[in-house]
Design goal:
The chain is of the alpha/beta class. The chain folds into 3 domains: about 55 residues, no CATH class; about 375 residues, no CATH class; about 120 residues, Rossmann fold, CATH 3.40.50. Helices cover about 60% and strands about 5% of the residues. It has 25 helices and 8 strands. A 5-stranded mixed β-sheet has the order 5-4-6-8-7. The protein is elongated, with a radius of gyration of 30 Å.
């Protein structure tokens, strides 16, 4: 190939006797190929099959034949391939929908009931709650509040997360197809569709499905803007979607940082200092309310997270590979899924390093793989490092498996690239890629089974819907309920009472409390209530000292009227003792 050293462009001739740009100064160590050349780079008719220096582009030459300079129409074969790919990704999306509809209407967990209760608050209470320490996931709370007018049942509320969880599947495919490879895009979408971890959080009434979807769109816009660095609308859309992702979950900021860490000096220079400043200032202004709420928050939302251990780290990565609830039903499933995923992640990284050193990589493909790899590695490393160092200003831990779910799209696409590298370099057989992908999907199906089994056990051990109905059917005007459980508020009870009120089943609701039951609270309650229902978790039995302390507190003013056992919980009813005068008057 004939290339001038002082020329910023390198041209090569295609089969239809037209040249395309195959190297430019955006990324000094990479090369541009593929369909994007037709969209972004100049094409000219030439009379020979030699390569030409890009310096000739400075001359505004018109081709002799206008038809030769036009972008060729897609052939019938290409149209059929496009339709088949559409049908395949549509089938994958439908399978993902079916997997996520299963068990959608089960009773809400504690965290989900928090979201549901926030959605039912008045506007004044809602704003005060967000500003009072619940600013994280603010976008999710606002959207769920609007969605709750459609319906307030478990399945209807979870359909909000379900929509974004399913929409992420074709979005991941398009991200991989455009910037990496069609096979990689399809593998990433298929692996995500069958990932038990993503299935769980696509049915979870929290912000993770929304945040993951917005991060996929943000990454797509980021790479699209890099492809044509002067597209103002694309950069504006990127800034807006990225800000929304941070409002969906504040830890999405780690993914945004990973995107920019993937760029080298040449790419940043191509974007331009002015545009970089505009992106930083505009994004900072859009995210400033969230930053203010985080800095001025009056309570911490991560006090409950324990310190990371080797076991919790391995389990979180195994969850990322799709073995959510890896101990059920088969304890070895977690490692069986984790090992091949780790191998393919390593192969993808090695393939990327080799291509960069041999100068074989396509620029946008190389950048996309760097972005995806850092998306997978940087947030996990940052959360783990923060949790181990624990700054004095925030001595809490950030290491939690549900936060790692923000890296799911990158993990699946990088694994798809690893399968591609394996099929091209190790075996070099065309049938290896589909066979390996099918094997990974089969293993993921076992992980999905474990998730379903685990949730069946949860539903049996978390019967607060049954407990709430039992108490409300037997309530009296002077009753109170105390949940002897370490909850900030009895949100599951509040949700189900709100649901019954909306359905017109009940009109009055006994007040409810939660925390540690103490003699002081019992003495104060004796002055206000005639009967007290006490609910506790049977999975966490109380110590003999706690039982003796509670009994001594109740014996002064109350007497035990009865007990009832439910799956996972127990209920005791204490009735206020009557003095002799009160007892005589009631008998009369």
């Amino acid at each position: 190939m004939c290339v001038r050293k002082d020329c910023p462009l390198t041209l090569a001739v295609t089969k239809d006797r037209r040249w395309v740009v195959v190297q430019d100064d955006l990324f000094s160590d990479t090369t541009v190929y593929g369909d994007r050349c037709h969209r972004e780079m100049s094409m000219c008719d030439v009379q020979s099959s030699k390569a030409y220096s890009g310096s000739c582009l400075s001359k505004k030459r018109r081709p002799k034949d206008p038809k030769a300079s036009a972008v060729p129409e897609p052939s019938q074969n290409q149209l059929l391939q496009g339709r088949s790919q559409f049908l395949v990704i549509a089938l994958v999306t439908l399978i993902a929908l079916a997997l996520r509809l299963h068990r959608l209407g089960e009773q809400l967990s504690y965290d989900e009931s928090v979201s549901a209760v926030f959605a039912s608050l008045s506007l004044r209470e809602f704003v005060a709650t967000l500003w009072g320490g619940e600013g994280n996931m603010a976008l999710f709370y606002v959207l769920v509040r609007a969605w709750s007018h459609v319906g307030y049942g478990e399945a209807v509320l979870r359909c909000f997360s379900l929509f974004f969880g399913v929409a992420t599947i074709p979005a991941v495919y398009e991200l991989g197809r455009r910037f990496v490879d069609k096979k990689v895009g399809l593998a990433g979408a298929a692996l995500l569709a069958a990932n038990g971890f993503h299935i769980r959080y696509s049915q979870f009434l929290r912000s993770y499905a929304l945040a993951v979807f917005l991060l996929v769109v943000s990454t797509y816009l980021f790479l699209a803007a890099l492809e044509s660095a002067r597209q103002k609308k694309t950069w504006a859309a990127y800034v807006l979607v990225s800000a929304l992702a941070v409002y969906a979950h504040v830890l999405a900021l780690l993914v945004l940082i990973a995107q920019w860490l993937s760029l080298g000096p040449a790419a940043l220079k191509r974007i331009g200092l002015g545009r970089l400043l505009w992106i930083v200032v505009t994004g900072g202004l859009l995210m400033s309310p969230m930053a203010a709420e985080m800095l001025l928050e009056r309570k911490s939302q991560i006090d409950w997270i324990p310190s990371p251990t080797l076991g919790s780290f391995v389990k979180a990565i195994a969850d990322l590979a799709g073995s959510y609830r890896w101990s059920l039903p088969h304890p070895a499933v977690g490692l069986v899924l984790l090992v091949p995923f780790a191998v393919f992640w390593a192969l993808a990284a090695l393939g990327m390093v080799y291509s960069a050193s041999a100068e074989l990589e396509v620029p946008m493909r190389s950048v996309a793989l760097r972005v995806l790899t850092l998306w997978l590695v940087f947030p996990i490393g940052a959360m783990l490092l923060f949790s181990l160092i624990r700054p004095l200003s925030h001595p809490q831990s950030l290491w939690n498996a549900q936060y790692v779910s923000l890296c799911l799209p990158a993990a699946m696409l990088v694994a798809g690239e690893g399968i591609s590298v394996f099929s091209k370099t190790v075996c070099r057989l065309h049938w290896v890629f589909p066979v390996v992908l099918a094997s990974m999907l089969a293993l993921s199906a076992v992980g999905v089974e474990g998730d379903y089994v685990g949730r069946s056990i949860d539903s049996r051990n978390f019967g607060l819907r049954t407990i709430t109905s039992y108490i409300l059917a037997r309530q009296r005007p002077a009753d109170a309920i105390f949940f002897d459980i370490l909850w900030e508020q009895p949100y599951p009870y509040l949700y189900y009472t709100h649901l019954d009120q909306r359905q017109g089943i009940i009109t009055t609701v006994p007040p409810a409390f939660s925390g540690h039951l103490t003699p002081e609270w019992i003495n104060s309650a004796a002055e206000k209530y005639e009967r007290i229902w006490v609910v506790w978790e049977t999975a966490k039995p109380r110590s003999p000292e706690q039982v003796a302390l509670i009994r001594s507190g109740f014996e002064r003013s109350f007497q035990l009227a009865g007990e009832q056992e439910f799956p996972g919980h127990g209920i005791a009813l204490f009735v206020k003792r009557l003095h002799k005068d009160e007892d005589r008057s009631r008998r009369q």
